[in-house]
Amino acid sequence: MTTVAPQPFVMPASAGDFFALTKPRVMSLVVFTALCGMLAAPGAIDPVIGFTAILAIALGAGASGALNQWYEAGLDAQMKRTANRPLPAGRMDKSSALHFGVGVAAFSVVLMGLAVNWLAAAILAFSILFYAVVYTMWLKPRTPQNIVIGGAAGAFPPLIGWAAVTGDVTLMPVLLFAIVFAWTPPHFWALALFINSDYAKAGIPMLPVVAGPQATRRQIVLYSVVLAAVAIAPWLLDLAGAIYGVAASALSLVFVALAIRVGTNRSTEPAAMRPEKRLFAFSILYLFALFAAVVADALILG
Question: Is the whole-model pTM more than 0.85?
Fold first, then answer.
């Protein structure tokens, strides 16, 4: 007589678990930069269509987060920072997460295409595929440059917001894309330095694990200088006015100064990584303030 091994019990997922699957904190940043791209774009958009575009972008970002957690459930279970997510904590089965992610992704793209325009929908679709497939499945487990190349996934929202209004892509939204792209490595590596043991335990080849803390700190300084140059570029190219120029210059000066503090830190003890924690915290403020300055400049001076 053949016995069937009992299946592990999975608790019914709640609405809160599905919401957690969308990575709401990441989604809030995505929505904000997309909204800024939309508000800074020339021309006007009907408020209902604008709301629909933002909704589609939020749903696309949430779907990306869900697919990321579906694929990385085993890795998440090995890291303290992610062990309580719905899948590793046993509150949801993987098939539910996969179906939710694919369904929401498809709905977000179709909604964007039918309600707004198909250029914005195409960029949204590409951003979802880039994050879920190129970054999550290919880059992250294979190369310490994963966050550099994969940072493009989080840089698409202002481009999508701009395209939703204008139906095209010009140099300014490309520069907004480049700002987020250059911002991602120093932001993420500052975090990775003080949760390095989690990534090492899970076998993820993040830069601090593969190259060590000092090499990572040098890269943080390098990318911070690149970020400052890209952030000031819209002003220098006369694509933004003085409000943005002053804000970008001041914010970038502080960012580089904090990055240099990180670069000169020699400690590998989490308790002594205050410069890294300060840079990580400021990097979030930096991006919000910089994009707010883009909007203020466009609305007041544009």
Answer: yes
